[in-house]
Amino acid sequence: MTALPASSTFMPSILFELAPDQLIRVQLWLYRIGGYLLINFVDDPVWLALMFC
Fold this sequence. Notes:
The protein has 53 residues and is an all-alpha fold. 66% of the residues lie in helices and 0% in strands.
């Protein structure tokens, strides 16, 4: 078996094909989703009790 390069037609590189404004939009959405998960799941007292007990 031979390895395919990351930019082949079977596995396109998404980050390098996005325009700069689209890349910024994706990064902002990832930060927004991460902030939501941090506030609503990691900061939940029941989740903290499960992690530390």
